[in-house]
């Protein structure tokens, strides 16, 4: 069989990423340029700065990916790029570049839903553990529990009503003086703290009906604001550990309950917050009592990257015969 090469492009937020996959599975290159250093002094992503830097960096990311994969652009058979959800300017940069390359090469183009892309991080790492599974997508922009009946067949059980889990990590991290994005630094700081030091709520754990699968993390951040106001000398490590424990408690309890109710054997956690060490360690351990197998992709596939986007594009094209027209627009509010 002749190798099929997919080019993937991801620019939905503040990572400029280009990947090349062989036969939809083997990662020949997955180049990620993070812009975090450009945004951290503002405490969050500035869309205009992000757009301009995607324009600047994308050609270099593409060349680096081609060099790493040791291929010529002309060998690419399919181009996939994130077309939503995300920031409209950043999306437009990756999407327009992808369409231009597809047009120049005369190959098909597929617009990828970034959230579906996150799920394909699992397909890349664990090709022998296919759906059905319960997916937990936890990132800077989303917190979603989804029943993945098959790739391409998603039933969303619940999402966050306000802040996403990663957003809550970033905001609480900022209150503790950590740079954006603060998730990884807060995770590290929490290791030196006592998770029981501060009593915090466990939001939405007592809901019934459809709202039992929903999340809310904005109130936790407010609790930390008040705690810091009343205890300005509170130990940052204790605050970090207590906050992280509250988020992890909620994520684990809802995820296990959904996995039991859906009777799925596998639980798949993806997105930036899947890199959280406490979530990884506790969910792996606590799922055993319920005889559920938990899968976390490696860190590099958890946070935003184009390999997962290329994998989703390959699946959409080869299995579902998807091919988008070149007037496909960015969709900032696209849902799973
Ligand atoms: O998936 P991702 O790279 O981008 C989005 O699609 O949003 O996720 C980024 C989010 C950020 O909020 C970041 O703080 C968080 O993932 N994150 C973490 C950790 N590493 C990254 N949150 C908690 N613990 C971590 N170790
Ligand atoms: Zn993401």
The CATH superfamily of the largest domain bears the name: ATPase, nucleotide binding domain
User: What percent strand?
Assistant: 15-25%
| Secondary-structure element string | EEEHHEHEHEEEHHHHEHEHH
CATH architecture of the largest domain: 2-Layer Sandwich
Notes on the structure:
By secondary structure, the protein is α/β, with parallel strands linked by helices. It folds into 2 domains: 5-118 and 302-318, 2-Layer Sandwich (Nucleotidyltransferase, domain 5), CATH 3.30.420; 132-299, Nucleotidyltransferase, domain 5 (2-Layer Sandwich), CATH 3.30.420. The protein is 43% helix and 19% strand. The chain contains 11 helices and 10 strands. The protein has helices spanning 36-39, 47-69, 88-105, 114-125, 165-175, 183-190, 218-230, 236-262, 277-287, 299-302, 306-320, and strands at 5-10, 15-22, 26-34, 78-84, 109-113, 133-138, 143-150, 153-159, 266-270, 293-295. The protein has a 5-stranded mixed β-sheet with strand order 3-2-1-4-5, with helices on both faces. β1 (5-10) and β2 (15-22) form a beta hairpin. α8 (236-262) runs parallel beside α9. The longest helix is centred in the last third of the chain and has 27 residues, at 236-262. The chain binds 5'-O-[(R)-(carboxyoxy)(hydroxy)phosphoryl]adenosine and zinc ion. 5'-O-[(R)-(carboxyoxy)(hydroxy)phosphoryl]adenosine binds next to α5 and α6.
Topology:
Blueprint: E1 5-10, E2 15-22, E3 26-34, H1 36-39, H2 47-69, E4 78-84, H3 88-105, E5 109-113, H4 114-125, E6 133-138, E7 143-150, E8 153-159, H5 165-175, H6 183-190, H7 218-230, H8 236-262, E9 266-270, H9 277-287, E10 293-295, H10 299-302, H11 306-320
Parallel strand pairs: 1-4, 4-5, 6-9, 9-10
Antiparallel strand pairs: 1-2, 2-3, 6-7, 7-8
Helix pairs in contact: 2-3, 4-11, 5-7, 5-8, 6-8, 8-9
The structure holds 5'-O-[(R)-(carboxyoxy)(hydroxy)phosphoryl]adenosine (KG4) and zinc ion.
């Amino acid at each position: 069989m002749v190798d099929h090469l997919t080019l993937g492009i991801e620019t939905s937020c503040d990572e400029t990423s280009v990947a090349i996959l062989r036969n939809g599975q083997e990662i020949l290159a997955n180049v990620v340029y993070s812009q975090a250093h450009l945004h951290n002094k503002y405490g969050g992503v500035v869309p205009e700065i992000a757009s301009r830097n995607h324009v600047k960096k994308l050609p270099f990311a593409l060349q680096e990916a081609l060099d790493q994969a040791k291929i010529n652009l002309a060998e690419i058979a399919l181009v996939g790029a994130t077309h939503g959800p995300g920031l409209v300017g950043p999306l437009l940069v990756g999407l327009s570049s992808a369409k231009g390359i597809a047009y120049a090469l005369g190959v098909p183009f597929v617009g990828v839903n970034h959230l579906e892309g996150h799920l394909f991080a699992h397909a890349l790492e664990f090709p022998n553990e296919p759906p059905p599974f319960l997916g937990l997508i936890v990132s800077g922009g989303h917190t979603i529990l989804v029943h993945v009946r098959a790739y391409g067949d998603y039933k969303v059980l619940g999402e966050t009503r306000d802040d996403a889990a990663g957003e809550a990590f970033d905001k609480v991290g900022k209150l503790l003086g950590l740079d954006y994005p603060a998730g990884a630094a807060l995770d590290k700081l929490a290791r030196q703290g006592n998770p029981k030091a501060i009593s915090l709520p466990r939001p939405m754990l007592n809901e019934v009906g459809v709202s039992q699968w929903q999340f809310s993390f904005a109130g936790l951040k407010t609790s930390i604001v008040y705690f810091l106001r009343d205890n300005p000398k509170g130990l940052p490590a204790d605050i970090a550990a207590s906050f992280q424990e509250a988020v992890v408690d909620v994520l684990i309890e809802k995820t296990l309950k959904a996995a039991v109710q859906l009777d799925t054997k596998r639980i798949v956690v993806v997105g930036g917050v899947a890199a959280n060490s406490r979530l990884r360690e506790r969910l792996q351990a606590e799922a055993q009592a319920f005889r559920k197998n938990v899968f976390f992709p490696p860190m590099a596939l958890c946070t935003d990257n184009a390999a997962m986007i290329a994998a989703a594009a390959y699946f959409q094209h080869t299995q579902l015969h998807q091919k988008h027209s070149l007037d496909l627009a960015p969709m900032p509010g696209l849902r799973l």
